[in-house]
Every structure is written in structure tokens, then in C-alpha cells.
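Entry type: protein chain
Record version: 2
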Amino acid sequence: MTSRGTSAALWLIFVQAVITQGMAFTVRPTISYRALEIGIAPAWLGALAATYAAAPLLCALLVGQATDRFGPKKIMVVGTLLMALSGVALTFIGGTITVLIVGSVLLGIGHLMAVIGQQAGVAGLTSPGKLQSVFGHYTLAGSLGQALGPGLIAVFGANATIPDTGLIFAVAAVLMTLSVGVAVVLPVPRSRKGRSDAQPASWREILRIRGLVPAITITAIVLAAVDITLIYLPVLGAELGISAGVVGLLLSVRAASSMLSRFFLGSLVRVLGSNRLLLLSLVIAAVSMALIPIGMPMAALVVLLVFLGFGLGIGQPVTMAWLAAAAPPGSQGRAMSLRISGSRLGQIVFPTAAGAVAAGFGASGALWGIAVALGAAGFISARHPLQFRPHK
């Protein structure tokens, strides 16, 4: 693929990342609102959220193998199609807990396929020296979607505690259908020069990558923290009498702050170094998360969401770029799927545990619990610094 073709493919991947992340981060909290609307107890929201990650966890490694075999584009097409089907189901028949679970599972599997395809495509199109920069741009695109998506909740929530979930699902279904179109017109991403004829490594070789387990653990905790914020900030808002519109804006503030941190990622890495920046981001996120439930004035809450978003925005692109460089040639799909498998496991374990804590201590307990986990991730980062050396 020519330089111009590579650039076009990357930009279309970034556009699709905006849509897929934006809609995932809109539909998931809207499912929580719909569950409350039909009388589901808040303590069960963690278990409902875990369905989003459970099915993808079972098939993530297979999706990684399929990506290496069939190419990222086909995986992105199928993934976005499943996301669109989820939106349609939630729009027209999403009035029972069964349909909410099915919709959540479809959304989770579709999102998984789209993300693995996107990440493998970016890794295959980017030279080793530009991985952190390009993955910073990729995750920036995702953050843009995460910032804009929850704005639908603000638009259709106004001053109501529960927004118009039906309209939100319908708009999301339309936008996810557009994402399918973006995947269809995407130029076929080909491996960068020197990798197209590489023999894929075995799972054993991938698992032997030094630092893999700490990197996956940190990523899992960071993404679980984002999930728990999505799930329990609406519940905390309902407990404190904060309108759905304000909660939607707070979620957008968090995502916008993550976007800002990724925009300046290259500069921050040059000043602080990757490992020091990763540790600092985890400490900031842990402290911010712990302070959110205390019940501060709205201005202070906004500031905390800014710090939280900044802290949560660093971990993903840093570990993603490291793994893309460390992965054996021709195995980016499986390497990324292994990383996402760990993330999905965290998205099952932590929200389920948060639900158990919320049953006794409310949304505040869930947020404090994940704050402790973020502190533990910081400890892991300090003890096991990542070695940023491309695979030979």
C-alpha cells in the first residue's frame, strides 16, 4: 500500500474508532438507565454490565486468530454489523432484562471485533518508531467518541433523572449502521514492508513476551475503572439527586480529559518517560476516583472528573504501543486479542465485585473499591517497568 493509501486507511480506522467507541459509551450507560426504568435493583447493574464482557472473553482469542488469518477489515465489518444489530434490538424490543442482556452481549462481541481489527490494522500499518504516536492518535479518536457519545444522554435527558432511553437507542443504531459503511469502504490494511511474509508466532512465544502479564493487568484495571465510572456515576447521580443531563456532561468531561492527555502523549513521554508517566497517571486516577463519592460542590466534581479522565487516558495507549512493538511479526491480531482478553476478564471481575460492594455500600463503595485497584495498578507499574524495545 502506498504512503497515501496507508494514511487514508489509518484515518478511516480513526473515524470508525470515534463511532464505535462513542456508541459503546453511550449505549452502555443507557442500558443501565433502561434497567432502572424497568425496575432492576442497582445491585444487579454490575452483573448486567459483566454480560458485555463475558461473551467476548470466551471468543477474543479466536477473533485474534481470525484477524491474523483473514485481515483486519473483514473483522471490523462483522464487528460493526453486530453493534448495529444490538442497537436495533434495544430500540424495538429492549423492554425486558432478557433483551437487555442479549443487546449487551451483541454490543460486547461486536465492539471486541471492531477494536481488535482496528488495533491490528494500526499495528500492521505503522513503523516501530511511530507506534506510540499513532496509537496515541488512535486512542485519541476513541476518546473523542467517548466524549461526544454520552452527549446524547445530555440531549435526551434534559433535567430528567432517567433520559429518553428509546430515542438514545434509536440514534445509536443509526450511527452504528454508518460505522458498518466506514468499514466496508476501508482500503484493505496490509502489513508494513517486511512483515507481509512473516510466519505467525505460536501462542507460547507470545505468552513469553517479558512484561506481558503486568501490562495486561494494568490495562484491565484501567478499563474496568472506566467501565465502573460509566455504570455507577449515573447511580451516584441518582442517589445525590443529580440530573441525567448533568451526569452525561460529567461523563463527557472525563472522556474529553482522556482525549487531551492522549493528544499530548508524545510530549509527555518525551518529558517524563513512558514508565514514569504511566505510574503518575495511575496515582492521579486512584486519588480522583476515591474523592468523587465524597459529595463535593459541582465545580469540584468537574475538576475531579478532569483529573480522573487524564489519569485513565494514559495507560491504554502506552501499553498498547508497547505490545504492538513487542509482538512477533505477523501476530498483532493475536497479541492484541490476548491483551483484550485480560481486559474483558477485568470487566467481568471488577464490575461484578463492584455490584456486590454497591449492594451494601451503594455506588460510593463501588467507586472506592476501584480506586484501591488503581492504586494496586500503580504499585505493579512501579515494580515491573515495561521495556520499550521492538521485537527483533
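Comment: The chain is about 80% helix and 0% strand.
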